[in-house]
Amino acid sequence: NTKITQSPRYLILGRANKSLECEQHLGHNAMYWYKQSAEKPPELMFLYNLKQLIRNETVPSRFIPECPDSSKLLLHISAVDPEDSAVYFCASSQAPTNERLFFGHGTKLSVL
Amino acid sequence: AQKVTQTQTSISVVEKTTVTMDCVYETRDSSYFLFWYKQTASGEIVFLIRQDSYKKENATVGHYSLNFQKPKSSIGLIITATQIEDSAVYFCAMNYNQGKLIFGQGTKLSIKP
Questions:
Q1: CA torsion sign, B20 to B61 to A103 to A107?
Q2: A89 closest CB neighbour out of B45, B91, B106
Q3: Residue A107 contacts residue A7 (beta carbons within 8 Å)
Q4: Residue A29: left if φ>0, alpha if ψ -120 to 50, beta else—which one?
Q5: pLDDT tens across B68-83, in order?
């Protein structure tokens, strides 16, 4: 799936700061960050539509999203906690309502 | 509260048979959208099929079809002529309230030769 690219694929962190990056080549207006913990379904963290943050679920303040342009999404993480170990998926859709989501391959974050 | 429930944790069937996966949902919205996604062993999440709540006809895409029973708040996924590569975790999901897609817990499907 080269339509949505995420980097890095794997990330091992102590209590450091890092940013996850996502870029979609589909011309979609809506972009999402989802967190999937082990043996759990994906859970929505943030949703941007037309570069505006329209959904901000209950997420620790150490996670800060950024949408520098309509095709890019960043997730800045500061002072990670062991509970942050998970796979973080970027996704996009044409609109944030009833459209199917396209997912990236995810970034697997392991916190030491 | 909005909720999606998949009670089948895992299912195992023989290749080339038909399998049905269950999903029930709770919502107060009059209009909503239901989806099935597949997550492969590599972790990739792929959209399979969608049902709009206002449509009476069951959606069908390839060898995937849905059994939509609105009065029962049920949206079952039917896979016919299963293949080994259908082995994956299948998630039922509901989209409501401007983009919040909530997923069920998933059903792990194993296809045996």
A1: positive
A2: B45
A3: yes
A4: alpha
A5: 999 999 999 999 999 9
Q: Which residues of A touch B50 (CB under 8 A)?
A: 98, 100
Rounded CA gap, B35 and B94, in Å? 6
CB contact under 8 A, A44 and B104: no
Q: Are the C-beta atoms of A9 and A1 separated by less than 8 Å?
A: no
Measured between CA atoms, the residue of chain A closest to residue B48 is A100
Q: Does A102 touch chain B (CB under 8 A)?
A: yes
Q: State percent of chain A over pLDDT 70.
A: 98
Coil/strand/helix, residue B102:
strand
Contact B33, B55 (CB under 8 A): no
